[in-house]
Amino acid sequence: MTDHVPAPGGGAPRVVGFVCDWAVSTAGLTDAAGRLLAHPSVVLIQVPCSGFIRPSWLEETLRAGAEGVFVVGCPYGDCLNREGNYLMRERIEQLQRRLQRRKVEPERLSMLAHGLHDREAFLADVGALVEALGRLGAAAGVRPVPPRAAVPSAAPAEEGNP
Amino acid sequence: MGAERARYAAAVFALAGIGAACAVVIVLGEILGSPQRPWFWQAGGAALGLIFVVYGLILLLLRKMGLIGPRRAER
Amino acid sequence: MYRRTLSALLRWTLRLDVFINRVWPSDLNPLYYTGGFANLFLFILVLSGLFIFFYYVPSLGGAHASVAYLTEQVPYGGLIRGIHRYAADAFIVSALLHLFRNWFTDRYLFSRDSPWISGMFMLLLGGFVGVTGYILVWDDRGLAVLSVFVDMLQSIPGAGDSLAALLVGGPGLWEGTLPRVLLLHVGPASALYLLLWWHYVRLRHPKVWPPATWVLISLGVVTLLAALVPAVSGTPAVPGAAPRAMAVDVFFLLPFWLAGYLPSMVIVGAVAVLFAAGFVIPYVSREPPRQMGVRHAGVAQVVDGNCTGCELCYYDCPYNAIVMVPSPYPGLTRAAANRKLLAVVIDSRCVECGICIGACPFEALELPGLLEADVRQRVAEAVRA
């Protein structure tokens, strides 16, 4: 696991994006490591459905040093699995409220909805997000990830049935 | 109110006017006309259909103006 | 070839969405509710059909006259008849749009073949019900349709004659024919609701109706059409008279029009092949499993030790693939030790979407191909990059 990596001073904000398999097609938009060519500080991770993401992973992404995190799902009404994007939007809103108590700005978490061919709109949204995060600066209220030993219930989970 | 919203609002009023006119046509027709005219029933049916369409379009415009519906879907 | 065509069709389908979503908020896009539209029009058909049923007389001498009475003498009777006619066309159009959209966007994979198969049956029955509807009017077109239908049935080797006898209610046309056709019109229409139950049974929160805006607009358009282009009968049917040219409703009567140009057996064969191909679609997926990447990450697995029985995964699964059972033994972690319920994934219903993983706050669910550890690793790599 990585320790809290300090934000590069003055550089573009580090953003991690989870892209659902049926949302906007990212072929040609990213390099081999998943970095967006248009905004190199944004890295994308593919998931089967936007509803797959646990809010704890989003929180962890912020703890690990990203300034912002977003989830891209299908347009509302057209989720391949019918409800994934609505469920994810609600989870993100709940997480935003929870993190606000620790003074993490809600703008750091975003839910986007873009269809397979909505590339321009997607890139425009990501650009606006990067800009807004640049003005916010480094994530203040997020605690560094504690060492693994302090989280006992996670260990047996990993050895569960694969 | 922005220019777009003003246009939507004007359209809502226009549509509502059309719907009211159709309702008047049906009511007047029933009162004045004898019930044995098949062409009147077709005309009344057209007015009824128009009322439904107008109602649906008004709801759509209100939704686009943000006055009804889950606003967060437009985020 | 199949794959490339489908990919192209998928692209065009979704490009169309981008245009529509610029005008309408995306959760009002009518193409996302094609199934709901079909259901709406079916409901309109049932209500208008009930009204017509009270006036219809199923006898060779009285059928045409009863329909004429309904259309010309009953207040708004012609309107209701027109609504019945146009709602039927709209039903078939919606069902076909629903079929094509779900085909092009791969919404039939894994356990979603269940709604697909029931849907194909519904399309078949729906088409049949529409054809019997045209026969019931018992004008010259109705008689022609019946004759061609009997011809087509008789051309089926083996069962042909018995099937034709079933349709007509005997060896030939007689007084019992129209009551039989009426039964074959109303019965399968009711059976459609049974098939609809099958269609919904694997889905949570199925989109049964379109949004209110669209319900009103559809109802309005069907009514407007019925008023502006009234549905009319032809001349009363005279058995034995030579058939003349007549208007063809392309959604129901296309095979019957083709019967004027092709032998009946060919048409029956073509229809059979088309439907057989339709039934096979869910089993001929566009991509081999290996190429499906994250979409084929394995059936969700419950991590027994962590499950606390909170039921969040059960509520979130869109396919009813998770059930809660009384917990046979306590869990391992402190939170799971006092559980009353345990989540169990029904493998045959799971489509491997992972929504349950996102719902679980206790790390008690995993996708074998994309474990929590894998996600954490990718996040770490992403942040370090």
Structure, described:
The complex is a heterotrimer of chains A (162), B (75) and C (385). Chain A is of the alpha/beta class and 162 residues long. Chain A contains four helices and four strands, in the order E-E-H-E-H-E-H-H. Chain A has a four-stranded parallel beta sheet with strand order 2-1-3-4, sandwiched between helices. Chain A is globular. The relative contact order of chain B is 0.15. Chain B has 75 residues and is mostly helical. Chain B has helices at residues 3-32, 38-64. Chain C is mainly alpha-helical and 385 residues long. Chain C has helices at residues 2-23, 34-53, 63-72, 77-104, 113-136, 140-154, 160-168, 177-200, 212-228, 254-258, 264-280, 312-316, 334-337, 355-359, 372-384, and strands at 301-302, 322-326, 341-345, 365-366. In chain C, the strands form two sheets. A two-stranded antiparallel sheet of chain C has the order 1-4. In chain C, helix 2 packs antiparallel against helix 4 (77-104), helix 5 (113-136) packs across helix 6 and helix 6 (140-154) crosses helix 11. Chain C is elongated and about 80 Å long. At the A-C interface, strand 2, helix 1, helix 2 and helix 4 of A face helix 1, strand 1, helix 14 and helix 15 of C.
Question: What is the CA-CA span between the terminal residues of chain A?
Answer: 21 Å
C-alpha geometry of chain B: elongated
Find the biggest chain interface: A-C, 53 and 67 residues
pLDDT average of chain A, as an integer?
A: 77
H and E string of chain B = HH
Total beta strand runs of chain B: 0
Number of helices of chain A: 4
